[in-house]
Design goal:
By secondary structure, this protein is of the alpha+beta class. It has 8 helices and 7 strands. Strand 2 (about 90-100) and strand 3 form a beta hairpin.
Length: about 210
């Protein structure tokens, strides 16, 4: 991939001619880490941190691999033989490991994803993979919740989708207000989950079931 993904609205005029940002080389990325180490007050040539730029770049390649992956492709293989099944399909406790786009600090938690199939279903591991793809990008939790919901809606055309994410943000616990043991909950409901309060409550009951 030669340039970073541009799937977010850019700030500025709609007719502003902005060139795509060229993806830096690995060595350029490592040099940026050396600069940050020096800015923090340390010596990037010191034995303990001399290999840190390599480790950080390797970690970033894993943390942000979602930019190279396509959620629609993960959801493209579906199955129509559902034997008349017409109730909720739900995954609970999907691990969320993402990074806040404002401070590049981690936020960690769980996602709960459900859909009401019409005439086709998808392999359940693919739903978890969609969560992982969007989590492995610089994100806000609110946007990620919407993206997961939209991806499932666009690919499966179900009768409805429900998504809930519960996560703790390190940008809030390790800096700024320093409030620990605080989690953020975001939800998104479409179709029957939005119009039918009983169905929505069933989803929330499943979320809270222990």
């Amino acid at each position: 991939m030669d340039a970073p993904s541009r799937d977010r609205t850019l700030i500025g005029s709609a007719d502003l001619d902005l060139e795509a940002v060229k993806r830096p080389t690995r060595e350029e990325a490592m040099e940026a880490v050396r600069t940050l180490i020096a800015w923090a007050g340390d010596d990037p040539r010191r034995e303990g941190v001399i290999d840190t730029p390599k480790r950080v770049v390797d970690a970033y390649a894993e943390w942000f691999e979602g930019y190279k992956l396509d959620p629609a492709k993960e959801l493209s293989r579906t199955f129509e033989d559902v034997q008349g099944y017409d109730d909720i399909v739900m995954l609970r406790d999907i691990e969320v490991e993402s990074h806040c786009e404002h401070h590049m600090a981690p936020f960690l938690g769980k996602a709960y994803v459900a859909y009401m199939p019409t005439n086709r279903v998808v392999g359940i591991s693919k739903l978890a993979k969609v969560v992982e793809i969007f989590a492995r990008r610089l994100q806000t939790q609110e946007t990620m919740t919407q993206q997961i919901c939209d991806a499932i809606t666009d690919s499966l055309r179900p009768a409805g989708v429900a998504v809930l994410i519960d996560a703790a943000h390190q940008c809030m616990t390790t800096r700024g207000v320093h409030h620990r043991h605080v989690s953020t909950i975001t939800t998104q409901f479409t179709g029957v989950f939005k119009t039918d309060p009983t169905l929505r409550q069933r989803f929330l009951d499943f979320v809270n079931r222990r």
